[in-house]
Amino acid sequence: MSLSKPWNHGSHHPFPHKQNFDLYRDVSSSLRPAFSLSTFSPFAMNALSPDEMERFQRLSNTYQPDVQPSHSIALDYANADPTLAAKTNTESSRIKSLNTLLDQIGLADHIYEIFVDATEDILKRIIDAIQSGVQDESFLVEAFNEGYSSDAVITHFRLLTGAWIKLNPGRYLPFLPMPVDQYCSTRIDPVKTEIDEVGLQALIHGVIEGSGFGVEILYLDRSEGDAVTPHQLTTNCPSGATLRLLYRPGHYDILYQAESTLNVAPIVNLQYGLSSDYTNSWDNATLGFDMNSSLMAIPNLMQDSSFGMGASMSPMPSVSPAPPSPYGMSPQQEMYPPMQSHPPIASISSPHPPPSSAPPPMTSLPSRSSDGPQIRLNPLVMKPNLSRSLPVTTPFKNSPYNQAHFQNSDFEPIHWEPHGR
Amino acid sequence: MDYNMEDTQNPVEAQKVAQRNDTQSVTKRLQAELMQLMLSPSPGISAFPDADGDLLAWTATITGPTETPYEGLTLKLSFKFPNDYPYSPPTVLFKTPIYHPNVDFSGRICLDILKDKWSAVYNVSSVLLSLQSLLGEPNNPLNAQAAELWDSNQEEFKRHVLARHQDLDDE
Predict the structure, then answer these.
(1) Which of A112, A138, A191 sits opposite B11 (nearest CB)?
(2) How many Å apart are CA A326 and CA B153, to the nearest integer?
(3) Which residue in the list B60, B62, B110, B161 is annotated as catalytic?
(4) Given this model, what pLDDT does residue B167 score?
């Protein structure tokens, strides 16, 4: 049984030492770790062949928490280039011009301005950071992790999406099970809703498309082969960058591919999902992780020579241009030395590894309670009692600390044993 | 009232400040709402922060809409705002005893927009207006007896409303 490293894309990966789950853990633990397979009940799993299971797991390993509003920002920023200040400026103006949508549907500006302000503030800080050559992007990590600003940006995009639908009802109404107003007030506006297919279309048409980013849905259907089925939702993307979302019914996760997207090796998910108001169900301690090391997971920032990275520029001691070891900068590593025993790397596009390959012996992992997160930690499906164990049990997918990992001592054989029930 | 307005741009401080940030943002939002309520009051509703000054607790009043059993009645409510308001709904309770299908005898309200259908664009004013219209259009039998009576005997329903109603003294 092989669990692939999510970010390994074969030998061409330009940043081998970024394939570090500790880093990944840092970032995503404070976000929305999403381990898949949870949606397959044990019963459903019986119907799947081991190969299928494996395929799903490999695909699932690439899951990222849902991200909506500002992956564009992340991409731009990861490319950190002074000319992006101008681009970001343009985007900022564009976003601001979308206020007219909100005005047209009769939303009072005193109601929406705090949300718009949050988005503008982030864009402005990006511009400032680029212009002043400051390489400290901790504000981004903070903005997308700190509930309030993240929620505000998401709300802003919710409002824009809803307004777009209301202003273009003919385009969406035939696909809606209810009147447009009701759809918006029950499926788009509420804080605790995930975006659905129609809503996503509207978000793309009304908000994202104008930014020049392409959008592609990768759909985990059950078609033949071991490749996920892509659906291109935008006809053109002048920027050359594509936002990829992994779809399973009821949920989209952002997905980063190392290939093609300019010189970006996207790794970091910087944002909350559209449904982000679950802070109460997430242990606050997840936000207490060392943000500095999480920044290390932002690809390119440290490698890009244009960055002229100087240690003195950074308030983050862990952000050194040449980390001594792949795992050297992770606080978790010190806390859990056994985690250095990482599973073998398997590329997502590689042939099926032999399902029968014996898993390595259990390491001395601490035991986790069996009610710990099994797989997918979308807050919508997560039990409240899971939250306390989040910081240590769920932070990244391929950690043996994740119960979905075969090296975890609480790993559930039923999910994996080919000849199990 | 004391509002912290410190610089949150400093990344080193950011983490520390994050928590307070939330409170600050809530406060800012609630101040804006209060301003709006005072500048353009809606007939039949009012709301104001409680005296303790943290802005997270308000008392509101609505008047019963005409042509409903609540016509002419004044109903007081309490609002408690969570730290992540407006991304979580306020906790709203009827303080005035009220006989209504959507309200239990502790004053708790069953209304979807105060729960899973809450949106961050709702505010004190829109909640109060929703509650006001809820008075004339009950939809969820939290109080089953009231719901039944509403459907079967409006006269009797109104008698129950008036019997239960008690004007609260101003504190």
Answers:
(1) A138
(2) 75
(3) B110
(4) 86
In angstroms, the CA A409 to CA A401 distance is: 8
Longest dimension (CA), chain A: 63
| pTM as predicted | 0.57
Query: Which string of DSSP letters, residue by residue, matches A366-380?
Result: PP--TTS--S---TT
Contacts of B11 in chain A (CB under 8 A): 136, 138-139, 142, 315
- Tell me if B45 sits within 8 A of B76, measured CB to CB: no
Q: What's the helix, strand, coil split of chain B in %, to 5?
A: 40, 15, 45
Q: Tell me if residue B110 is catalytic.
A: yes
Predicted confidence at residue A50, as pLDDT, reads 73
Encode A279-331 in three state secondary structure. HHHCCHHHHHCCHHHHHCCCCCCCCCHHHCCCHHHCCCCCCCCCCCCCCCCCH
- Chain A: give the shortest CA distance to residue B116, in Å: 6
pLDDT at residue A221 greater than cutoff 70: yes
**Residue A256 CB-density burial (10 A; 0-12 exposed, 13-18 middle, 19+ buried):** buried
Are A261 and A241 a contacting pair, CB within 8 Å?
Answer: yes
Residue with tokens 């309030």: A148
| Distance set, CA A212 to CA A215, A242, A247, A407, B78 (Å) | 10, 9, 22, 43, 47
CA distance from start to end of chain B = 20
Q: Do A192 and B28 touch (CB under 8 A)?
A: no
Confidence of residue A76 (pLDDT cuts 50, 70, 90): low
Say yes or no for a CB contact (<8 Å) between A190 and B25. no
End-to-end C-alpha distance for chain A, whole angstroms? 17
Residue (of A211, A186, A179, A188) closest to A98 by Cα position: A211
Do the Cβ atoms of A189 and B121 come within 8 Å?
Answer: yes
Question: Helix, strand or coil for residue B142?
Answer: coil
Residue A84 reports pLDDT greater than 80: no
Task: State how beta strands A229-232 and A214-219 pair.
Answer: antiparallel
Rounded distance, CA A177 to CA B59, Å? 38
Of A139, A152, A158, the CB nearest to B14: A139
**Cβ atoms within 10 A of the Cβ of A90, count?**
12
Lowest mean pLDDT, pick from A4-13, A87-96, B118-127: A4-13
**Residue A87 reports pLDDT greater than 50:** yes
Q: Which of A110, A112, A148 faces B22 most closely, judged by CB atoms?
A: A148
* Least trusted range by pLDDT, from A134-138, A321-325, A417-421, B83-87: A321-325
Please, which contacts does A403-406 make with residues 24 or more away whose CB atoms are closer than 8 Å? A403/A368, A403/A372, A403/A373, A403/A374, A403/A375, A404/A35, A404/A37, A404/A374, A404/A375, A405/A3, A405/A343, A406/A1, A406/A3, A406/A343, A406/A359
Among A66-70, A118-122, A159-163, the range scoring the smallest mean pLDDT is: A66-70
**Cα–Cα distance measured from residue B165 to residue B159, given in angstroms and rounded to the nearest whole number:** 10
A291 pLDDT exceeds 50? Answer: no
Confidence of residue B150 (pLDDT cuts 50, 70, 90): very high
A387 pLDDT tier (thresholds 50, 70, 90): very low
Q: Answer whether residue A419 shows pLDDT above 50.
A: yes
Residue B87 touches partner A, C-beta closer than 8 Å: yes
